[in-house]
Request: fold
Amino acid sequence: MSEILYEANPSMVRSNPFGTLLGVLLIPAGIGILILLYLYVMSKADHLVIKTDEIVWTHGLLSKQYTEINMAQVRTVRINQSI
Reply:
């Protein structure tokens, strides 16, 4: 079993700064909460794990795509999983 060195999801603000600002500005109108919720869910759809021997990137909520990069052999494995 390899040790996890780093594990994270992308930042909602860094991924879409104008959308986040628009959502914050539209909170009094009521639609801002929906925009921020959408951006939050989209940021949680990506997940990156860096281990001692591989890098794993997962994208998607219901239909997931896995990308594994093995450090020893420098190869990429992609798997698409749908409902």
